[in-house]
Amino acid sequence: MIRDIQGLHHVTSLASDAQKNNDFFTKVLGLRRVKKTVNFDAPEVYHLYYGDELGTPGTVMTYFPFPGARRGRAGIGEVGTTVFAIPTGAVGYWQERLTKAGVANISSDTYFGAPRLRFSGPDGDAFAVVEVDNHSRDPWTGNGVPADVAIRGFHSTDMRLWDATATAELLEFMGYEKQDQSGSVTRYHIPGGNDANVIDLAQLQASPAAQGAGSVHHVAFAVENRAKQLEVRKALMDTGYQVTPVIDRDYFWAIYFRTPGGVLFEIATNEPGFDRDEDTAHLGEALKLPSQHEHLRHLLEQKYLEPIHD
Fold first, then answer.
1. pLDDT at position 191, please?
2. Where is the VOC domain (predicted)?
């Protein structure tokens, strides 16, 4: 069994408009944009990162906003809902804030014993905030959300699967333990992990998902450093998974593999972090390009990357 995974590192999704995406996460959810860069494989498309002050692993939502992208179709074989943690008693604040902002599909309920508020992002993305009693992460308050109600980072994601058995076995191999069950949803968590240490597996009968704007592209799990990442890679490959070589993503190193349920998993390092090329006070302000794309800067800025207005 793998013992080096700490919980979630980041969640990466697809969008159709960079400005709307930026406004939603910074002006509505109150997160900090910690990096403005481009897709390594499609440099004409932004890669935007949102999180806490430093972009701490377990707080970072990232997006590839492909201009005009068609919306995805929800279904099995994908991450369904991305859930953020908020302090106890904060659901009422968020219901009022999201309603005033015109956010769609707001509904409240109690889920695994905790108050939860569900809502949609600009491309129909499925989100929720859930109240958490114990939280050790400091929130970002630079976008106007008070500290006593602000988002603390991720709580969890859920995965929609036709048959959750093989994915459950994978999670247990990755160090997760079964924690609870509610109907067809089984909750797993990593004891002693970071505060983003919960995964819910939802088993249901539905059509396969079709990826597009609003879909989660992949979910990334955190390991401390490159040495631990290599140990995880070997363990996964020894178990029969096809895992990519280590890829330098500038702010972390990454490996990827496809799960039995069809969801793309990434294992990402906590090092070196988002302050490797920007001062902490100015994270996310300048367009940062991977070195292999720096020669394209003028073309990208003049032709492809519409300015994002803060």
1. 93
2. 7-132, 153-270
Which residue range forms the structural domain that includes residue 284?
8-304
144, two tokens: 């106007």
Contact between residue 166 and residue 261 where contact means Cβ atoms under 8 Å apart? yes
* Band (136; pLDDT cuts 50, 70, 90): confident
Looking at the domain assignment, is residue 76 inside a domain? Answer: yes
Report residue 90 as tokens. Answer: 């904060």
What is the residue-wise DSSP string for 58-98?
A: TSEEEEEE-TTPPBPB--BSEEEEEEEEEETT-HHHHHHHH
* C-alpha 35 chain-centroid distance: 14
| Closest-CA residue to 86 (of 107, 61, 67, 59) | 59
pLDDT at 23: 98
Q: What is this structure's pTM?
A: 0.97
Length of the chain: 310
Query: Do the domain assignments include residue 2?
Result: no
| Residue 1 within any structural domain of the chain | no
Model confidence pLDDT, tens digit, residues 238-296:
999 999 999 999 999 999 999 999 999 999 999 999 999 999 999 999 999 999 999 99
Question: pLDDT per residue over 164-186, tens digit each?
Answer: 999 999 999 999 999 999 999 99
**Looking at the DSSP assignment, which residues form a beta bridge with residue 191?**
none
The pLDDT assigned to 188 comes to: 98
State the Cα–Cα distance between residues 77 and 74, nearest whole angstrom: 9
- Of 217, 223, 221, whose CA–CA distance to 264 is shortest? 217
User: Which among 133, 4, 41, 28 is positioned nearest to 12, based on CA atoms?
Assistant: 41
Instruction: Determine if residue 40 is left, alpha or beta; phi over 0 gives left, psi from -120 to 50 gives alpha, anything else beta.
Output: alpha
Q: How would you classify the pairing of strands 78-87 and 126-132?
A: parallel
We report the CATH number of the domain holding residue 149 as: 3.10.180.10
Question: What is the number of domains present in the chain?
Answer: 1
Contact yes or no for 196/153 (Cβ under 8 A)? yes
DSSP 244: P
Q: Does 262 reside within a domain?
A: yes
